[in-house]
Specification:
The protein is mainly α and about 400 residues long. It has one domain: Na+/H+ antiporter like fold (Up-down Bundle). Helices cover about 75% and strands about 0% of the residues. It is built from 16 helices and no strands. Helix 3 packs across helix 14 and helix 4 packs antiparallel against helix 13. About 40% of the residues are buried. The C terminus is likely disordered.
């Protein structure tokens, strides 16, 4: 049995690699194929009577590690300089405003139709409002540079802001001045911790001479993130700042203290670290969505009680997104369609205290919204223009996106 599981797992991960290789040409997000593969394995195992232990408890572990590696991978890719300021501002606005609008809309609907408190309604609404960087970032690697960078920034901001908003609502029984003051203090603390931890980790990355040097760094990153969660600090901010720092050492050479880190030598180590992070993110992401697909039930996917809710939520997602993109003077195609729900939605849903759950927000609704948004993204990418713009066209897109 052990041999069979290992063979199946290796085969599925190799298949996931093929999906990743071909996604640029087929425009089919690999997450859809991974979910389908996991689902098919479940049906086949039931058909042959193969008993596999309950793997549900692995889902949040894989999800957390995957989220850390994916945000780190994305932030390592980003350039951070003055020319990127307009892009960062726009991506922050587009990630925040539709999220808040959708959260309040769903909160009102849940409160009215499910007869639950405003707070509990919002706790259940927020997971459905967050763009999944785990799906969005790998799906845009073949887009033109501006759109790719925008999606990486936007989805990373969405993850961070979504977790912040979720924790704020879930952990505070009231929303007075003291709650906001405590929240502001948490942001200050995580900013200071992020700065100090980033310097220490960068120093270790440059100084460790042992042949095993990247694994301890990644383990320390995960450890800092998990400790920050214990104290309800927004650890994703640390992950993003750490990645941005390592990926933009050349932009900070004007600071004298950076020279102590020997940026020219450190850049070589960062390149190796980036390659390891990319491969690790691929493996964990593939395992997560294969497992999630395996745990899906046919009855959950085809649950008619939640299907209407799922369709309405997805319609609201893209309506609000289209409105914000228009206001921000950003191109609708293909950005409109890249708003998938996924890993972060699942993690936040699993984090809801049982006492705060409402009936309509269940596993069926989460699965249906994830599948519908992924299919919408696939259709959008398939119908978007495939030609690669030349340098002039890229510059024009970037200029058009600047604030007027």
């Amino acid at each position: 049995m052990t041999t069979g599981i290992i063979i199946t797992l290796c085969s599925l991960l190799l298949l996931a690699y093929v999906f990743d290789l071909t996604s640029g040409k087929t425009k089919v997000p690999s997450v859809i194929l991974l979910l389908l593969s996991g689902f098919v394995v479940r049906q086949l195992s039931n058909l042959v009577g193969l008993k596999i232990p309950d793997l549900t408890s692995l889902l949040p572990i894989l999800g957390t590690v995957g989220l850390i590696l994916i945000v780190l991978e994305g932030s390592l890719e980003l350039e951070f300089n003055k020319t990127k300021t307009p892009l960062i501002k726009k991506s922050l606005i587009v990630s925040l405003l539709p999220m808040l609008a959708l959260a309040f809309l769903l909160t009102f609907l849940f409160h009215y139709f499910e007869q639950t408190s405003f707070r509990y309604s919002m706790v259940n609404a927020i997971p459905l409002c967050v763009i999944s960087s785990a799906i969005a970032i790998p799906s845009v690697k073949h887009l033109q540079p501006f759109n790719k960078e925008f999606v990486i920034y936007e989805s990373s901001f969405s993850d961070i802001l979504g977790v912040l908003l979720f924790n704020f609502v879930a952990l505070n029984t009231s929303f007075g001045l003291s709650s906001f003051g405590h929240f502001g203090l948490e942001l200050i603390i995580i900013t200071v911790v992020s700065f100090l931890a980033t310097i220490v980790l960068a120093f270790l990355l440059n100084k460790i001479d042992h042949h095993i040097k990247f694994a301890p760094i990644i383990l320390l990153v995960i450890l800092i993130y998990e400790i920050s969660k214990v104290y309800h600090l927004p650890g994703l901010i640390f992950i993003m700042l750490f990645g941005l720092f390592l990926g933009n050492l050349d932009e900070m050479k004007q600071f004298k203290w950076i020279e102590k880190l020997k940026p020219n030598e450190l850049n070589k180590e960062v390149l190796k670290f980036k390659e390891l992070t990319t491969e690790g993110a691929f493996l964990i992401r593939a395992l997560f969505f294969l497992l999630f697909g395996y745990l899906m039930q046919t009855s959950e996917i085809l649950n008619t009680d939640t299907l209407i809710w799922a369709i309405l939520i997805v319609a609201a997602i893209f309506l609000l997104r289209a409105l914000q993109l228009k206001i921000s003077r950003l191109p609708l195609s293909p950005l409109l369609f890249i708003a998938p729900r996924g890993l972060i939605t699942i993690l936040l849903f699993l984090s809801i205290d049982p006492s705060q759950n409402i009936a309509v927000v269940n596993k069926s609704l989460i699965i249906q919204v994830i599948v519908l948004t992924a299919f919408t993204m696939m259709i959008g990418l398939l119908t978007a223009k495939t030609e690669q713009p030349d340098k002039t066209e890229e510059d024009n897109v970037a200029v058009d996106a600047l604030p007027k």
